[in-house]
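Quick one, T. Sequence first:
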Amino acid sequence: MLWPDWVLIWSIIQNISLVGIIGYLVTRISVFHRTLSYSHFRTYDKLILGLIFGVFSAFGNWIGIPVLGSMANQRIVGPIVGGLLGGPLVGVIAGIIGGLTRYFMGGFTVWPSVISNVIVGYISGMVYNHYGSQRINIKIAFITAVVCEGILKLMILTMSKPFQTAWQLEQVIGIATTISNSMAVAFFVYIVHDIIHEQHKAQALSVQQAISMIQKTSDFLQQGLNEESATKVAKRIYQETKAGAVAITDTEKVLAFVGSGEEQHLPGMPIFTAETKCAIKNKQAVIDAPLMVSNELVGTLKLYKKKNQIIEPHEAELIQGIANFLSLQLAQQKLDKQQLLLLQTEYSMLKAQISPHFFFNTLTTIQALIMSKPEKAAALIKDLAIFFRKTLKLGSEIVSLREELDSVNTYLRIEKARFQNQMHVSINIPEKLLNHPLPVFTLQPLVENAIRHGISIKKGGGTVQIVAYYKEEQLFVKIIDDGVGISNYQLQDNNPKFPPSSTGSGIGLCNVHRRIQKIYGSEFGLQFISIVGQGTEVTLNLPWTEEESGAIEKVKSTHCG
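Structure tokens:
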């Protein structure tokens, strides 16, 4: 029996230390940071990670130590870590790259080494699929590496000829390489998790920064986008972000420029000025976020990083979030002007949806989650942006029931974050009804009414049900809650089935009712049934459209005519 060669073991430990240093440096590469910032990897991201860990696996070959006609190396670390962090595709790509470099080095263990390198990458990827990236800890990483090393050594013993030489090889290096490579995998996973934790902290601070800027700029654009309002906003963003410079433009000229180079950027100058050209020439990082109103570009928000600084993903999201909010303010200001000129029902309805009460309650919830649950806070910010973006989209007035439910689900995710276990939602709508057309933002005010005036003020919360069915050439959608209900004296005398505006969201509900009647006729609309202490049932009825594939266009023509 051969005893371990302690000189060899010391050499392996030195190599592992080198692998650890290289691994740490790899995790500091900006492309590695950006790729890990995505919660769901795209194919492009997986290819990048596969290449990175493949090179890492090849490096493990190159620093290998010749032993008995084979090599003691750290090749296997790359595909294992790649699989654990990115899934089977990343692990297999890394395994192939590391396996190819091992093939050209030769030796009597070449084929089991090449094949096992791909297999362990796939197995590690399956561990990723089973646990998910957030649940793979150091212990799981270490055990996975030990199992993968066992597979490698089993394949070497069964496939290598002569067997006696393979057995002698594993007696010498088996234990040392298993322990050292497994520790290297665990250490690498620890480093990556530490990086992800840092990113989450940065995202949390970014969300908090966004909320602060939103609150401090909420009144600046009430008079529209002009030099005075743009300067106020740019100064506030510059102070909060400590950027190199901040600029706001309309579609033709600079409205405001604060920071480095502001003496060359006076209001009224063309957008593509010397500073922008200089930034491009010097590869200075610029975040350029559009300001959109009614799907039209009205301006841009530009943030210039200081020289030699890169743009982190959370910074780009921060500026885009601020731009979305500024777009919201501009759209609201545009709506206010249009309402003074045109008393169009759809504009009134859209304005009614942008409830300050709902908006600031959501901001309060986000602030409460920032430090304790930063990922949830970031997701809530995105849901809020999606909700307002859909609310302010003044495109087609007719959408499918499926699209309407998407908006409702976004709204419900935001409300569930506030009420948590006090609010339950049940949706029962047959698939065949989802293509049926209806006016945009018809269901959301009904769901909001059920939550705000039914569930939220009931002790212990309650349940909201959304049910749809077809009957007698009509589509019926019911919003049912088991909240506090509406008392008889709150119902209008001239229509006992319809609640008054005094209930708080009645303006929005009346708006929905009138729009439906305007489009389809007086026999359609909303009906209310409510019992105090038991709940409320709102029924929306619309005419049934047989040709669902052309239903939206058919209703558009009816409305426009």
